[in-house]
Amino acid sequence: xxxxxxxxxxxxxxxxxxxxNVDLVVEIPAGDSDMEExxxxxxxxxxxxxxxxxxxxxxxxxxxxxxxxxxxxxxxxNAVVIVPPEHLxxxxxxxxxxxNSPAAVEPKI
Length: 109
What we know:
Elements: E1 16-17, E2 22-23, E3 39-44, H1 47-59, E4 65-67, H2 69-74, E5 79-83, H3 88-99
Antiparallel strand pairs: 1-2, 3-5, 4-5
Protein name: DUF2007 domain-containing protein
C-alpha cells in the first residue's frame, strides 16, 4: 500500500496515511511522480544519522525525499533517502561526512 501524496509505502494492516490524511492505494500510477527518477543514497534506521544527513541535504539545496522515516523510529525497518541522479555524487559526499560525525552514533540502550 502506498500514500498517493507522499508516496510512502505502508505494510498491512495500514489503510490511511496519517501524515497526509489520505487513504492508501495499492500502487502509484506510472508517471505520477518525479520521485520515480530518484535514486537511493541511504538506507538506515539510525535516527541521528538520518537527521544529520537530511539537514545537510537541505542546507546544500539537494532535493531529497525520505521514505519510511517515521516508521524507522518506531520499528526495526529502514528509512530510504532518495535524491535525483544528478545530485547522487554530492549526496554521497555529504553522507560520508554525516557518517563520520560523532553525533551520528546511535545511543546504546
